[in-house]
Amino acid sequence: MKKINVVTVNYLNTKPFLEGLRRSSIIESIKLDIAHPARCADAMSSDEGEIGLVPVAALNHLNNYEIVSDYCLGCDGPVSSVCIFSEIPLNECDTLLLDYQSRTSAALTRYFQNNYWNYNLNFIDADIGYESQIKAKTAGLVIGDRCFSLKDRFTYVVDLGEVWKMKENLPFVFAVWVSKIELDASFKIAFNQALADGVNNLQWSAPLKSPSYDYLKNYISFPFDESKRKAFNIFMQYLKQEVVGV
């Protein structure tokens, strides 16, 4: 029997999903494809991925998809792993390097610039190793585990999850689980339960009382609940307007 190709990310914040899947009997019927968020989006846009944890900024580029889980990758306030770093205040910078690994975080940064900040920033899509270029008047958007090692290096840190919460008074959704193929109802239930088990047993992903456990417990919010769906719809509407140039 052909296994279903499941594309996801291998960051600390996705470990609960991976642990839940790997410890479930459903692992026998899936093949895990690990990548960074932008690569996940590309895989789901092609024929490589069938189920994926897809960054919301990539959803408008999928022809057909269904959200298949009650869980997502989100936050409800500071997220700690999606940040803009700089040596001087962001409003005094003239360049912002955008992380090549995340289109959603880049789109969220543009959302703030268009709706709230209006800073005089030149946005540049960065390449591998761009972190060393964050200096003087050049700021950098960085996502994922790399953020943890950068926080002590820079005087100024803008947490995008915190900014969204302050501006919109809502949680934020970075990625959702979607399928491009029709799934059996029993598979959906088992898949969702595997994710739930991972989220409800964070000790599978990080030792209790460790900084990693604290991050998963207090900075990442996994349930795709009503408030996150509202935030998701707001941001998706913005993305659609950007695509059509409204």
Report the total helices. Answer: 8
Gyration radius (Cα, Å) is 18 Å
Q: Trace the largest sheet across and list its strands.
A: 2-1-3-10-4-11
The helix/strand order is EHEHEEEEHEEHEHEHHEH
Overall strand count: 11
Shape: globular
The end-to-end distance, rounded to whole angstroms, is 46 Å
What is the CATH homology-level superfamily of the largest domain?
Answer: Periplasmic binding protein-like II
Q: State the low-pLDDT regions, or none.
A: none
Protein structure class: alpha/beta
CATH topology of the largest domain: D-Maltodextrin-Binding Protein, domain 2
Highest-level CATH class of the largest domain: Alpha Beta
Strand composition percent: 15-25%
Largest sheet features: 6 strands, mixed
Q: Please state the average pLDDT score.
A: 93
Q: How many independent structural domains? A: 2
Oligomeric state: single chain
CATH architecture classification name of the largest domain: 3-Layer(aba) Sandwich
**Proportion of residues in helical segments:** 25-40%
SSE topology sketch:
Elements: E1 4-9, H1 15-22, E2 30-35, H2 37-45, E3 51-55, E4 66-75, E5 82-86, E6 95-98, H3 103-117, E7 122-125, E8 138-143, H4 146-150, E9 156-159, H5 160-168, E10 172-179, H6 185-200, H7 211-218, E11 221-223, H8 226-244
Parallel strand pairs: 1-2, 1-3, 6-7, 6-8
Antiparallel strand pairs: 3-10, 4-10, 4-11, 5-8, 5-9
Helix pairs in contact: 1-6, 3-5
